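step=encode ok
step=design start
structure_in=
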């Protein structure tokens, strides 16, 4: 994912600002300076990387980090161009697996990333995370956290509406109808940013598809099953049923990610279907608010519910970094208990390595429980053979919401791209 979300974390800056920062310009967070004491960094972790940079600079007197943050869509469009043209920063956000243009496999295969297998933390990564941080057995991605996708509720808004988070599909639709009747839609949906379109779908696919078949991805890879002839169609139908039932605010296609945060943070909706990373951003918009992650149900059996939970975006080192030693020092700081805990605390996530001493935020109690009980599946795109499948899905979901496509057409197009990349 941008997860896609996907994840993925945004505060959009202009392409010009991103390019300038990576090639020597300045931006908020820039500290000037030069030579080997200046590290360049491009990140999608807006709202959390700032504190990590500050702690890194404090631990390394004389070192300055010149950094930018940008939205996932824009970042993914830019970083490959910068790498191929030699204007990329020393360190950059990299997604796990193979799901998008800035994912581990996609950037490691042409040699854009430095092999990090010799770094002290690499061998200790859990197998599930290591598998999507590596390419051909070598580690290229410093993945610091685990994330989940589900419903994040505004507790104060729930109390005002007199409603409780649903744990069955039947109750979810009833919840949406009741919320709409009270004039406060259940969930904010920012589908103007196309990476957001996948999150509700992934939350529903986790249970609908993988609840009965944990080997679904292996069957896809073996050509034994397709998107179109699988419960993916059931999940997509449920997504559209949520839309028709009034689960979302009016005009999701006219609402971007940041605006959707504002709706959920201020109680104009009761919550938002997003990655847990959104919690930190909601708290930023409403420091007095209380936000809680819950699984999004897709059936009427709560014990069968599964959550998409997987490695989040990490950091890679440019193979042609101007400051390789400093770049390695930064990713090792990110993977240290101090750096990792700073990140996951700000993002409302969970550390990727054990024994960091991190106390799980109460808002993530349910996500932590699902991970501990092995009731999770990776973000779907992380195991797809090429980024085109996800891009087709994202644009296709926008087209469905605008009435320009159909679920049947989208799933067939995803199958075509999947087979072409296998």
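sequence_out=
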């Amino acid at each position: 994912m941008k997860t896609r979300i996907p994840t993925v974390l945004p505060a959009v800056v202009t392409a010009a600002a991103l390019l300038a920062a990576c090639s020597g310009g300045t931006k908020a967070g820039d500290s000037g300076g030069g030579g080997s004491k200046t590290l360049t960094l491009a990140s999608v972790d807006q709202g959390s990387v700032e504190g990590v940079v500050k702690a890194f600079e404090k631990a390394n007197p004389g070192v300055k980090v010149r950094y930018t943050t940008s939205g996932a869509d824009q970042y993914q469009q830019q970083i490959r161009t910068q790498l191929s043209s030699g204007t990329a920063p020393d360190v950059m956000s990299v997604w796990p697996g193979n799901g998008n243009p800035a994912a581990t496999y996609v950037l490691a295969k042409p040699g854009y990333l430095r092999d990090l297998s010799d770094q002290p933390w690499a061998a200790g990564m859990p197998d599930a995370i290591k598998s999507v941080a590596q390419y051909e057995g070598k580690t290229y991605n410093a993945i610091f956290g685990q994330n989940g996708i589900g419903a994040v509720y505004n507790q104060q808004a729930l109390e005002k509406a007199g409603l409780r988070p649903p744990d069955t599909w039947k109750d979810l639709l009833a919840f949406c109808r009741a919320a709409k009747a009270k004039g406060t839609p259940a969930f904010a949906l920012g589908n103007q940013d196309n990476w957001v379109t996948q999150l509700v779908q992934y939350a529903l696919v986790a249970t609908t598809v993988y609840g009965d078949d944990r080997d679904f991805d292996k069957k896809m890879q073996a050509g034994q099953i397709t998107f179109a002839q699988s419960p993916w169609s059931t999940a997509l139908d449920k997504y559209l049923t949520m839309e028709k039932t009034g689960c979302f605010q009016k005009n999701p296609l006219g609402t971007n990610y940041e605006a959707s945060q504002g709706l959920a943070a201020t109680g104009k909706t009761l919550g938002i279907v997003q990655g847990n990373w959104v919690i930190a951003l909601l708290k930023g918009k409403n420091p007095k608010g209380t936000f809680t992650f819950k699984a999004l149900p897709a059936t009427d059996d709560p014990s069968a519910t599964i959550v998409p939970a997987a490695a989040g975006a990490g950091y890679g080192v440019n193979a042609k970094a101007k400051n390789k030693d400093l770049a390695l020092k930064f990713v090792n700081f990110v993977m240290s208990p101090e750096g990792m805990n700073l990140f996951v605390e700000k993002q409302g996530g969970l550390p990727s390595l054990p024994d960091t001493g991190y106390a799980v935020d109460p808002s993530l109690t349910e996500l932590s429980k699902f991970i501990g009980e092995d009731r999770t599946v990776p973000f779907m795109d992380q195991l797809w053979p090429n980024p085109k499948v996800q891009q087709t899905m994202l644009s296709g979901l926008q087209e469905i919401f605008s009435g320009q496509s159909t679920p049947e057409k989208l799933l067939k197009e995803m199958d075509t791209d999947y087979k072409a990349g296998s």
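step=design ok
step=annotate ok -> Residues 208 and 235 are 6 Å apart (CA to CA).
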